Automatic annotation (TrEMBL):
SUPFAM superfamilies: Family A G protein-coupled receptor-like. This is Olfactory receptor. The lineage of its organism: Eukaryota, Metazoa, Chordata, Craniata, Vertebrata. GO terms for molecular function: G protein-coupled receptor activity; olfactory receptor activity. The chain crosses the membrane at residues 24-45, 57-76, 96-118, 138-160, 201-223, 235-256, 268-287. The keyword Cell membrane applies. It is a multi-pass membrane protein. It is found in: Cell membrane; Membrane. GO terms for cellular component: plasma membrane. The gene is LOC100515602.
Length: 310
C-alpha cells in the first residue's frame, strides 16, 4: 500500500522549533530517559536476583518495568536526537514501525496493569486460594495472552495507518508518529478511520480505566475485614497501583477518545504517558514498597561485598 502514496518520508516538528528551546528539550529529556533506563533496569535486576520477590505481584511488576523500558525506547531516543537537528525526517516505513511498537507496548502496559489489579484482588479478597488461582503457570498464560492481545491491537493500528492515502502534506505536528497526526495529512475522508480509532484505542483506554478503578474500589472496600497491619500493607500497595493507573490513563483517555480534534496541548499531554509514566513507575513502586527497597538494599550490599573480595 505504500507504493500508492506519493509521500516517502515525513517531517516531525517535535515539541518546539525554537533552537534554544530545542537544546533545553534535548537536555531535559536525555536526563528523563536515562532516569527511565536506570530506574526500570534496577527493578528488573532486583526482581530477577531476589528470592524474596517471587510472588505473582513481582512477576507482573518485572514485565511492567520491561514494558516501560521498551515503551519509552520506542519514542525517546529519536525525540532526543531530533532535538539536535535542524530538519527532522522519518521514512514512511520507520513511521509505521513506530506506530506499531508504540501501540504494542502501550497496550501491553494496559493489560499488565489489569493483571496486577487481578492479582491484588485475589490476594486480598481470596487469600486462602491465592497460590492456587495465581500459580506460576496461570501467570505465564495470562502474560502470554497479554502479548497476543497487544499484537492484535497494534496490528489493527498499522492496518488503519496503511489504509490512509498520503499525496501531499508530509509535516507531522508531533514528536512521534501516531494515527491522530497522520489522519490530518491523509488526502481522503477519515471519518470512518476516526470512528475505528475511537472504538479501538479509545475504548480500550476508557473501559480498562473503568474496570481498574471499580476493581480497586472493591478491593479497598474488602479491606475493612482485615487486621490493621494487613490493611496498611494492602492499602499502600493499592494506592501505588492507583497512582500509576491515573497517571497513565488520564492523558491516554484525553487523547484517544476524541481523535477527530487536535489541540495545541496534545503534544505536552502525550509526554505524560510516553515519558512521565515510565519515569514515575519505578519511583512509585520502590518508594512505597518496603519489600522492593529491602531487596535493592540486599542487592547493593552483595555488590559491595563482591567488590571488597576482589
Amino acid at each position: 500500500m505504500q507504493l500508492n502514496n506519493n509521500v516517502t518520508e515525513f517531517i516531525l516538528l517535535g515539541l518546539t522549533q525554537d533552537p534554544v528551546r530545542k537544546k533545553i528539550v534535548f537536555a531535559i529529556f536525555l536526563i528523563f530517559y536515562l532516569g527511565i533506563l536506570l530506574g526500570n533496569l534496577l527493578i528488573l535486576a532486583t526482581i530477577k536476583t531476589s528470592r524474596a520477590l517471587g510472588s505473582p505481584m513481582y512477576f507482573f511488576l518485572f514485565y511492567l518495568s520491561l514494558t516501560d523500558t521498551c515503551f519509552s525506547t520506542s519514542i525517546a531516543p529519536r525525540m532526543i536526537v531530533d532535538a539536535l537537528l535542524k530538519k527532522t525526517t522519518i521514512s514512511f516505513s520507520e513511521c509505521m514501525f513506530q506506530v506499531f511498537t508504540f501501540h504494542f507496548f502501550g497496550c501491553l502496559e494496559i493489560f499488565i496493569l489489569i493483571l496486577m489489579a487481578v492479582d491484588r484482588y485475589v490476594a486480598i479478597c481470596k487469600p486462602l486460594h491465592y497460590t492456587t488461582i495465581m500459580s506460576h503457570r496461570v501467570c505465564g498464560v495470562l502474560m502470554a495472552l497479554a502479548w497476543v492481545g497487544s499484537c492484535v491491537h497494534s496490528s489493527a493500528q498499522i492496518f488503519l495507518a496503511l489504509s490512509l492515502p498520503f499525496c501531499g502534506p508530509n509535516v507531522i505536528d508531533h514528536y512521534f508518529c501516531d494515527l491522530q497526526p497522520l489522519l490530518k495529512l491523509a488526502c481522503a475522508d477519515t471519518y470512518v478511520t476516526n470512528l475505528l480509532l475511537v472504538s479501538n484505542s479509545g475504548a480500550i483506554c476508557t473501559v480498562s480505566f473503568v474496570m481498574l478503578m471499580v476493581s480497586y474500589v472493591i478491593i479497598l472496600y474488602s479491606l475493612r475485614n482485615h487486621s490493621a497491619e494487613g490493611r496498611k500493607k494492602a492499602l499502600s500497595t493499592c494506592i501505588s497501583h492507583i497512582m500509576v493507573v491515573i497517571l497513565f490513563f488520564g492523558p491516554c483517555i484525553f487523547i484517544y477518545t476524541r481523535p477527530a480534534t487536535t489541540f495545541s496541548t496534545d503534544k505536552m499531554i502525550a509526554v505524560f504517558y510516553t515519558i512521565g509514566t515510565p519515569l514515575f513507575n519505578p519511583l512509585i513502586y520502590t518508594l512505597r514498597n518496603a519489600e522492593v527497597k529491602n531487596a535493592m538494599r540486599m542487592l547493593w550490599n552483595k555488590k559491595l561485598v563482591s567488590d571488597d573480595q576482589r
